[in-house]
Amino acid sequence: DHLALDWLWDWDHHLNYAHIKWSIDQMEGILQRWGSHSALIGLEPVNEPNYWTDQTFLKAYYREVRKMMKQYAPQAYFVFHNSFRSDWSDWEDLFAPGDRHLTAVDHHGYFAWSNFQNVNDACGFIEGSSDFAKDFRDNGIEVWWGEWALATDNCAMWLGGFNDQNPQPEASCKPIPCPLSYLPADEFDTSFDRESTTPLGPFAQNKDSAIVGITNGTCWDDSELWTNEMVQQLGDCTLKAFNDKIDAQFLWTARNEIEDKWSYINAWDKGWIKQEKADESRSDYVNKEIKFIQ
């Protein structure tokens, strides 16, 4: 809990006002520097404050940062993570009914840690878990699904951090040759011992070094339980749920070197998250070209 709570509490669980003030000062500095920039869509002041975070102080923090948003970036969204509390009753007093313009709640949810074995169960999960959004939207707060991926297991290399998993994978992960880095070799040394017969350390919380470490130049990819056709069906039902119930969604990550199901670019190229052409007659239609940095 250190990473999630240290910005708000001391180790002895006393509220640390200096930490809160420091965080607010950083938000003001960011807004002063970038608040008027044309690329700024919104600001989320803290990512994933965990479920045990005291809501009284979290809400006070959110309100304070939003005041600065109105001053420095009135054109941008104030985005707040729901602290893994998705009920409207937990957040209806955050802002007054007439003071919710350009606000959005950020919700994160993944298939990967639920060990789904079939499409029906996974699609049922996303269809049901997106129902919470209605109350927020009915009351003037947009809902952004800020993190999701098409992975249905947690085999992804270093998903829990460097040489760590989160938790031990239940699926049979797929060993693959570790990719060569896309970084220019004349600028960055990305070499490592690809012939080591013992897992390369150091290791974090997961003690099974064989599944998180690199041995003989071998990395780990998602299991092969889900076929391309199954992933396509999962992508279809997920996007349908999001289109029907959610205002915005962001697949995590934009790009990675191994796992297609965690890569927006690769998932798009495979057709898993491509949709039919938008209806240009809609009043909210915006035509923008998307360019990826390779």
Would you give an account of this structure?
By secondary structure, the protein is of the alpha/beta class. Helices cover 29% and strands 11% of the residues. Strands 1-2-3-4-7 form a 5-stranded parallel β-sheet. A two-stranded antiparallel sheet has the order 5-6. Strand 1, helix 3 and strand 2 form a beta-alpha-beta unit. The N terminus is likely disordered.
SSE blueprint and pairings:
Layout: H1 2-5, H2 17-34, E1 42-43, H3 55-72, E2 77-81, E3 103-108, H4 119-129, H5 133-138, E4 142-148, E5 174-177, H6 209-212, E6 218-221, H7 228-245, E7 248-251, H8 264-269
Parallel strand pairs: 1-2, 2-3, 3-4, 4-7
Antiparallel strand pairs: 5-6
Helix pairs in contact: 2-3, 4-7
Helix content: 25-40%
Strand content: 5-15%
Count of alpha/pi helices? 8
Unreliable spans are: 1-5
Form type: globular
Order of helix and strand elements from N to C terminus: HHEHEEHHEEHEHEH
pLDDT averaged residue by residue: 89
Strand order of the largest sheet: 1-2-3-4-7
Strand count, sense and closure of the main sheet? 5 strands, parallel
Number of strands: 7
Radius of gyration: 21 Å
Class of secondary structure makeup: alpha/beta
Alpha-carbon distance between the two ends: 36 Å
